[in-house]
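Researcher: Good morning. I'm working through a list of sequences from a screen, and I'd like to move beyond sequence-only analysis. For each chain I'm collecting a predicted structure so we can compare shapes side by side. This is the next one on the list. No need for commentary yet; just the structure.
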Amino acid sequence: MSSGLDRDHLSALWQRRYPKGPPIAHELRAAYGDRWVRFHSLPGSKRYPQTEGEYAIALHRYNTVLDELFAGTEIYVVTVAWSWERGGPESPPERHQAHPQGTRWTTLAFDDDPDPELHSYTHLYADRRPWRKGTVDGVLRKVADDVLSGVIITDSELSRIHHPYDGGADVIATSSAERDRMRDSHQDWLPRNPAGL
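Model: Good morning. C-alpha cells for this chain:
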C-alpha cells in the first residue's frame, strides 16, 4: 500500500541530495562515480532471463541488494514514461500496469532543440511504501525484460539509490566505503571488465 506523494518535498530533497542533475537514472553513474557499483543479475553476465529459474535468480539478486540498502525503511519507487508532446500518449504503456500506484511526480522537458519534432518529455511517477522483499518484483520483472527503463528505487531520505536495468543494477551508496563493502560482499555478481560495466 502506498502513501501520499509530496511532490514538492521529493523535488527539493532530490535537488539537495543530487545537485549534479535531474533524476535520470542512467546519468547517476557518471555524476556519482565515487559511490557507484554495478551488479549483474544473472551468472556469466547474461543479460535477459529466459526461464522461470533465471527470473528467480535475477529477482533474488535484485532483492538481496535492495534489502541490504533499504531494510527497515520506506522507499520511493520511481518509474518513467516518455512522450513526444507534453500531454501526449506515453510509452511504454506497460508502465502503468507495472506501477499503478505511481503518481506523477514531475515532467522533464527536453525541448532545447529548435526542431519541435525532436522535443521529448520524460514523465516520472513515484510512490512511497515500506520496503519488504518482493514489493517491487512486478516492476523488476518488467525491467529485466527491457519493458521498463529508468527506474529508481531509493529510501525516503534519498541517501541511497538502486537503479535496476535489463542485466543488472547500478547502486549509488552513501559513501565509497559503503560501496566497497557491498562490492566485496557480492564479488560473483560484479562485471568482469575493468570499468565495472
